[in-house]
Amino acid sequence: MMELWRATGVYQLTMPQFFMICIALVLLYLAIAKGFEPLLLVPIGFGGLLSNIPGVDIAVGEGVLHQFYVIGIETGIFPLVIFMGVGAMTDFGPLLANPKTLWLGAAAQFGIFATLIGAVGLTSLGIFDFSIKEAAAIGIIGGADGPTAIYVAGILAPELLGAIAVAAYSYMALVPLIQPPIMRALTTQAEREIEMTQLRDVSQAEKIFFPIMLLLLVALMVPSAAPLLGMFCFGNLMRECGVVARLSDTTQNALINITTILLGLSVGSKLRAEQFLVAETLGILALGMVAFCIGTATGVLMAKLMNVLSTRKINPLIGAAGVSAVPMAARVANKVGLEANPHNFLLMHAMGPNVAGVIGSAVAAGILIQFAA
After folding, report:
1. How far are the Cα atoms of 51, 103, 301 from residue 308, in angstroms, in the given order?
2. How far apart are CA 173 and CA 164, in angstroms?
3. Rounded to two decimals, what is the model's pTM?
């Protein structure tokens, strides 16, 4: 009986493992009860549960979750496939109809580089101990793009992957709570009430031409951005060209769904207590929040600056959608706009900077990889 008792998980359970099991349960609660990014938080949370059960080596060695991680995360395959699926579901129409919203997506990436500089500065002061690669991987959280954060962390700082992934997806899920106070603090009631005119119709030829030219222009300037941006543009080209409907449908549904499951479980496998419960984790969570808040603020401030320089006003709220939490950030901008003016429908206008944010985060990731790796 004593041997049987010692073999149980209850006997072997440590306090750090118990704490991480509680964290995994919280993630599942947020996904199921609150609807926060359930497609990813459910597999991540469940993977965290499995990886912290004592006596089960499912997340190490030959364990299935570790194998998922090696095959999909270490190679970078899972984030790239996710990007291809996102591209197949993306409509560049709002961005092409109002090209100046590209500036909003670009401005929102400032949080990434500001946090990189901040992490390096705090390390020089002895508060943290992050290398330049780790600081770059932490900074990418500010893009509010989970697959990009995982891709960059897998290349630059795989030891921090669990904390970075949880931070990135947690802040993506908390967009409706984090962004509105920042948006209201930086705008006046009159600015929030600005109504925007109907977007022009974008031709199919423009939609086909755009992803090809985008890839060539960006990849030739920043080759390290080619993998992420290439998969994104390829998925979008399948959507818009009209001759591979079956491939586009598979990419938008079956392929991205299967990859999402495996990606979530792989990330969850890195929530093991001995890897996650380290001093740097709190620093990563704090710096990630700062990055996300700065990205939101700079997007709004860029929109205000554009209004000063232009006679055709845009609602500054759509600047907050420059972070690439698609389409949650665009929905939040629309919601805050409707609160200020019941006739203020900003969703399609906000999708322009939202899509630009996806492009911007991919370019920023390429720059960080190119210079930090």
Report:
1. 53, 14, 11
2. 14
3. 0.89
